Q: What sequence folds into this?
């Protein structure tokens, strides 16, 4: 029933074909910026196991109630286990993480029941054949019900669509032809699949993305980049929504220091489907800053076409941006926060266009009570405003928990 591992993508709900514009409220999915977005081999992590327990309260309220979309208001409890490891071998560094959990909503989630399961995994590796030739691979997947952790990738999700599988795998080959000029060839496979047939029929999809990048180092810290990409997106059950995109991009990669770096790509996206043929601006950027040993900041943004929620529309174009900050107040006490914003413009063709604004904020505290016991608390707030009032909602979620590692 489940498909091969597919990418961080965007969530979807559409509850009736006869109500073309009356979707279940939605949220955008992961923004996967190219070229080793998940690799970080600076710190050795020994094999570590963890046990996590927690609970909280979840409240999701629609502006307009209908028999097909109902509010959620319930206490919940969660129990999980995990394992992580990082090897910073000079030739072949690699890392992986895997965690599994079960979550029970005391009062249940309308249409979907009380108990749900989550499985999250990530694997990254690099291998240097020589000073010039390097390959790398980044894999990320989730089988779950609620991708609230997407904010760390510059995106957020807010709604329940039932159990789903999404994944992302990027493989690339880099070669330095001269000390200044290099190329990177990459292939990315991504997709999202839902178990609920009502959602799966219009939304299940996967994409192939091919990329060729040319980079020239102006200085030791600054490189200019030219890049071409080609994306093929296939909808499993609704082939009329299939589309392709060509990207012509230019940009720059720059490191201000060993602690601060960023990348920017701008250009045009040539989008084509059975109903739309259009050229629009495309842009993506990331910025990482380790302020000091106590503080880390990550920002990501992307502008372009999106494959989610196209059942009643010809296309979806928008902006995703998100900021994540982690800071250690003391050796024991840490804080984290995130904020994300999404703008979407749905082309309704002969129907009604829809414009949406969505945002999420989150804050959290962590306290290292003992060497192997961490206590944590968190709060998140999400809101979606739309010209289709049936899609509007807000959500509050509070959590308390503890993690033991060994």
A:
């Amino acid at each position: 029933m489940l498909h091969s591992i597919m990418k961080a993508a965007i969530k979807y709900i559409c509850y009736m074909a006869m109500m073309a514009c009356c979707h279940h409220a939605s949220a955008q999915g992961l923004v996967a910026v190219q070229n080793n977005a998940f690799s970080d081999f600076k710190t050795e992590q020994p094999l570590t196991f963890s046990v996590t327990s927690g609970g909280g309260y979840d409240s999701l309220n629609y502006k307009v109630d209908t028999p097909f979309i109902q509010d959620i208001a319930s206490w919940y409890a969660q129990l999980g286990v995990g394992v992580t490891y990082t090897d910073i071998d000079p030739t072949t560094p690699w890392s992986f993480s895997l965690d599994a959990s079960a979550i029970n909503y005391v009062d249940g989630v309308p249409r979907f029941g009380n108990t749900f399961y989550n499985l999250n995994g990530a694997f990254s590796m690099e291998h240097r054949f020589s000073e010039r030739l390097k390959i790398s691979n980044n894999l990320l997947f989730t089988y779950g019900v609620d991708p609230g952790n997407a904010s760390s990738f510059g995106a957020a999700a807010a709604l329940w669509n039932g159990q789903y599988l999404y994944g992302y795998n990027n493989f690339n080959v880099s070669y330095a032809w001269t000390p200044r000029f290099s190329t990177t060839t990459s292939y990315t496979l991504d997709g999202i699949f839902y178990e609920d047939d009502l959602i799966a029929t219009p939304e299940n999809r996967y994409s192939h993305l091919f990329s060729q990048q040319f980079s020239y180092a102006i200085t030791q810290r600054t490189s200019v980049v030219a890049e071409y990409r080609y994306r093929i997106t296939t909808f499993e059950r609704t082939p009329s929504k299939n589309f392709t995109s060509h990207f012509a991009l230019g940009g720059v990669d720059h490191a201000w220091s060993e602690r601060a770096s960023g990348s920017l790509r701008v250009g045009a996206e040539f989008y084509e489907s059975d109903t739309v043929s259009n050229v629009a601006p495309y842009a993506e950027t990331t910025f990482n800053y380790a302020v000091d040993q106590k503080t880390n900041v990550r920002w990501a943004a992307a502008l372009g076409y999106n494959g989610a929620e196209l059942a009643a529309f010809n296309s979806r174009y928008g902006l995703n941006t998100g900021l994540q900050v982690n800071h250690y107040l003391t050796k024991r006490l840490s804080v984290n926060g995130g904020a994300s914003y999404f703008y979407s413009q749905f082309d309704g063709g002969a129907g009604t266009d829809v414009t949406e604004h969505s945002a999420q904020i989150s804050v959290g505290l962590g306290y290292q009570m003992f060497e192997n016991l961490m206590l944590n608390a968190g709060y998140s707030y999400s809101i979606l405003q739309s010209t289709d009032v049936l899609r509007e909602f807000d959500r509050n979620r509070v959590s308390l928990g503890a993690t033991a590692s060994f």
